[in-house]
Design a protein that fits this description.
single chain; Hypothetical Protein Ychn, Chain: A; 5-stranded parallel sheet; about 30% helix
Length: about 100
Amino acid sequence: MRSILILIGSGPRTPQAEQALTLAVRLRQAGHQLRIALIQDASLMALARPGCSVPPAVSLYVVDEDLRLRGCRKEDVVPGVRIVDRSELVDLMMEQSDAVMGAF
């Protein structure tokens, strides 16, 4: 199966973010290797707050700069979420994924 990266830019509990997470569940159930990168307002989904569910067996990334721009610290991020910089995000998109989907 394919390695797919989904970029989510919408904040927690928005219809766009919920649709992206639903898509992620379906792609995972279809057997695809799945990664989700939380960018912009979606970076808030990486914090230890209730109400945001990420599918199991999905690698989750958040962009450090987006966290900092929203006044968040690395210590606030849920364990297991990998904090990356913009160049690492580009590597995820260009070199480590067969397909990239955006949900903004």
